[in-house]
Each structure stands twice: as structure tokens, then as C-alpha cells.
Amino acid sequence: MANEPLEVTVRRLPALTVLDLEGEINGLAESRLNHAYADAEGAGPRTVLLNFSGVDYINSTGIALIVSLLGRARASGRELRACGLSEHYVEIFNITRLADFMSVFPNEEAAVSEAALGAG
Predict the structure, then answer these.
(1) What is this structure's pTM?
(2) 3-state class of 84 per DSSP?
């Protein structure tokens, strides 16, 4: 499997901030992921959504990075959500109990819709 470095785009929506993730989430992704999350946090959103639609692979180090973001979010009173995970990674989130601490949505539309309802 060829390494595809993680690319992250930060988008601010009215109800939340989205991190569009593309490539692989592994040890090489740490700096980009942390920088993008800090950028997202800077706008002060109540909710940050990790959009995994463009993610090809997540290894155990990548899971640890996501756990780290979850810790940062919880410490600052933010909610971290996920969307666009493949069935395999939904199962991994369930097995690792990440899904117990962050809402997982099938797609961005569902996550944004739910966030908009919560903001009202």
C-alpha cells in the first residue's frame, strides 16, 4: 500500500467546523492533523466534524491521534463528531469504543443537520 500523505481542509459552517480528511491517517499525519484541528478550534466552534470520506487507511497510530483530538475537544468543551467512515472503520470505532465518545454519522449532511437542530 502506497503512503498517501494526509491532506486536511478546514471549512467553517454555521453549525460546526469541518475537517475534510484525505489520504492516510498514520504517524506521518500527526503534524497536519494537529495543525488543522488548532485552526478549527481558533474560530471557537462548539462542534468539530471529522469528515473521513477521503480517508483510505487508518492504522493504530492514526486511531491514537483521533483519541488525542477527542481529548482536546473534551478538555475545551467541544464536541467531536465523525462522518464518512467506511463500514470497516465504523466497526473499528465501535470495537475501540471511540463511537461511545463521539457521534458517528453516515455522511456530512446528517451530521450538519443534527448539529443545526442542536444549535436551535
Answers:
(1) 0.93
(2) coil
